[in-house]
Design goal:
Distance between the termini: 42 Å
Number of strands: 9
Shape: elongated
Strand order of the largest sheet: 3-4-5-2-1-9-8
Strand content: 5-15%
Order of helices and strands: HHHHHHEHEHEHEEEEHEEHH
Oligomer: single chain
Radius of gyration: 21 Å
């Protein structure tokens, strides 16, 4: 049976046609090329939207819908075409930075808290990446598992193996829920492990595309408070690099939201 999402899903957004997209762009005063750059999509894609050959979807659609209903939130006041009356001086809103964010504020489940706090309490050195990191930064959507990049020092491998044995790990996607015999040697030589545990799903990675191994991920991480623990989470810059390197449609859509969040935070 497929697992239920443990993040609050984004509400559905009505489809936008060529006329609506063109109206949003006109309000900004931008040409198609500038509008594409603002949304972090290709000029060709904006042309396809406005000609009706393609329709916006995912994060781009959510951003366009928000821009249509609340332009004062999305567009900087300096954009020539924005007419928001008394709110012309309103700048992009600031979101909490990763250093100040908390998992509870992002509507994550206590299962995710338990997994991450359990790893921390075991003394495991790791960086949170993937969907949970994106949610902490404010990206709308859902994820079914916790993704981490971990340190491969002998001491850390021992601690990670001990944690996995304690939470009854099994290999995900295999018939019969095959138990995972967690040992440091396996963890040292397996690039990716997708596991189910009694605390939830956990994906272990030795490195992440666009960023690198644990040392590289650590250098692009920030501290986040989770149930009284201080954990490392990939920064916006690190997450953007990873999403762009992935090339998956879902990740390409999240790049749009992450770029907006970075502008919102003044980065």
């Amino acid at each position: 049976m497929p697992r239920k999402s443990v993040l609050t899903p984004a509400p559905p957004v009505p489809t936008m046609g060529p006329r609506e997209v063109r109206a949003v762009r006109t309000r900004t005063g931008l040409a198609q090329a500038g509008f594409a750059e603002f949304l972090n999509v290709s000029h060709e894609l904006v042309q396809a939207w406005e000609s009706g050959r393609r329709t916006p979807r995912g994060a781009a659609l959510r951003l366009l819908a928000l821009a249509e209903s609340h332009p004062e939130i999305v567009f900087p006041a300096s954009m020539a075409g924005v007419a928001t009356g008394a709110q012309d001086a309103v700048l992009l809103p600031r979101r909490p930075t990763p250093v100040l964010g908390t998992l509870q504020a992002m509507s994550l489940s206590t299962a995710f808290d338990a997994l991450l706090c359990g790893l921390a309490d075991q003394g495991v050195e790791f960086v949170v990446v993937g969907g949970v990191a994106a949610a902490i930064h404010g990206v709308a959507g859902h994820t079914d598992d916790v993704d981490i990049v971990y340190d491969r020092t002998p001491e850390n491998l021992d601690r990670l193996a001990g944690f996995l044995r304690g939470v009854t790990s099994t290999l995900r996607g295999t018939p019969g829920r095959i138990p995972f015999a967690a040992d440091p040697r396996t963890l040292a030589h397996t690039a990716v492990l997708a596991l189910d545990t009694r605390l939830g799903a956990l994906d272990l990675r030795q490195r992440i595309a666009g960023v690198g191994d644990f040392a590289a991920s650590r250098s692009l991480s920030a501290r986040v408070s989770v149930a009284g623990r201080s954990l490392r989470v990939l920064t916006l810059d690190g997450l953007l690099a990873a999403k762009k390197a992935s090339g998956r449609p879902k990740d390409r859509e999240q790049v749009v939201e992450l770029e907006l969040i970075r502008r919102t935070a003044g980065g």
